[in-house]
Amino acid sequence: MHSWPRLLMAASIAGAGWAATPPARAAEKPAEKPIVGIVIKTSTNPFFVKMKEGADAAAARLGMELRSFAGKMDGDTDAQVTAVESLIAAGAKGILITPSDSRAIVPVLEQARARGILVIALDTPLDPPSAADATFATDNVLAGKLVGEWAAKTLGANAKSAKIALLDLNVNQISVDVDRDQGFLKGFGVNVADPAVIGDEKDARIVGHDVTLGNEEGGRRAMENLLQRDPSVSVVYAINEPAAAGAYEALRSIGRDKDVLVVAVDGGCPGVRNVQDGVIAATAMQFPLVMAQMGVEAVLKYATDGTRPTPTDGKDFVNTGVELVTDRPVPGLPSIGTDAALKKCWG
């Protein structure tokens, strides 16, 4: 995992220095704290709440002023645009953002970069990724691949006849959604057609895809839709743990909760407890607090000496780590149990 050193901010003296007369009145003007902004998708999702906590803690430790903004819901791009405009006007040194729409937010972020503001995408890359100075994120392809490999190994020979339902995020096919979905399929052994597109694979084991908006209600509804298409579903992939919990409720309502493998990505504490309780069979844990801490540290380094963050070797982003969580480990695939995961989880 790429990491940034802990930074100390040197105090600076503003203005021309000492007053002309009298010497006894000479005083230093306190240095203004550099402003860093964090713009999250929503303040109701525990993932983004933990991200904000990480930014708060890092800013306090490093002597920076954090200004926080959130959309009313996932997909509230207008609120994110307004937040970025506010940070530009405030003279922020850097903006950390989890874009609700990776394309639509780019024009206003280009305005920020034109003003010399460092732009860091957290969790979800921009489209194109080069529209940010850096991206701090989970390797979402790997996260999906881990739960896909686990499901295939757990099923063994039965993987060849599996019936797979995929519960994705929304119709926009943003990169985090695509990466997790395609990573899962690759891990399970499904040939994907275009790795940048959800739903174009030809494997007969795929029952179908549906969208969940990343919440429990959406997961239940999507699972019900796919069960109507094929009630023999045996494996469910979900974009996140709330969607997986909704899928489980739909399965339980028809008595299928004990014989279907449900896997997800996130690593929130409720999700880890659901793994412990058998609601979810396995999940891939990511680390939002680390993302935000590293992002704030990067902004201070940029404000101090102009240095921009560099990607992890072999990646086009700074990798903030991922771990497979399950109480049913399989040979050849490193994982941690729920007792260990509950000490690392968020939310």
Question: Nutshell version of this structure?
Answer:
The protein has 347 residues and is of the alpha/beta class. 37% of the residues lie in helices and 16% in strands.
Description of the structure:
The protein has helices spanning 46-62, 77-90, 106-114, 140-155, 175-188, 216-229, 241-253, 269-276, 288-305, 338-341, and strands at residues 35-40, 65-70, 94-97, 118-122, 134-137, 164-168, 206-211, 235-238, 261-266, 282-285, 318-319, 323-325. With 347 residues, it is of the alpha/beta class. Helix 1 runs parallel beside helix 9. The two termini are 22 Å apart. Mean pLDDT is 91; it is low at 1-30.
Q: Helices, strands, pairings?
A:
Layout: E1 35-40, H1 46-62, E2 65-70, H2 77-90, E3 94-97, H3 106-114, E4 118-122, E5 134-137, H4 140-155, E6 164-168, H5 175-188, E7 206-211, H6 216-229, E8 235-238, H7 241-253, E9 261-266, H8 269-276, E10 282-285, H9 288-305, E11 318-319, E12 323-325, H10 338-341
Parallel strand pairs: 1-2, 1-3, 3-4, 4-5, 5-11, 6-7, 6-8, 8-9, 9-10
Antiparallel strand pairs: 10-12
Q: Class by helix and strand content? A: alpha/beta
Radius of gyration, in Å, reads: 22 Å
Regions with pLDDT < 50 over 5+ consecutive residues? 1-30
Percent range of helical residues: 25-40%
**Order of adjacent strands in the largest pleated sheet:** 2-1-3-4-5-11
Average pLDDT, to the nearest integer?
91
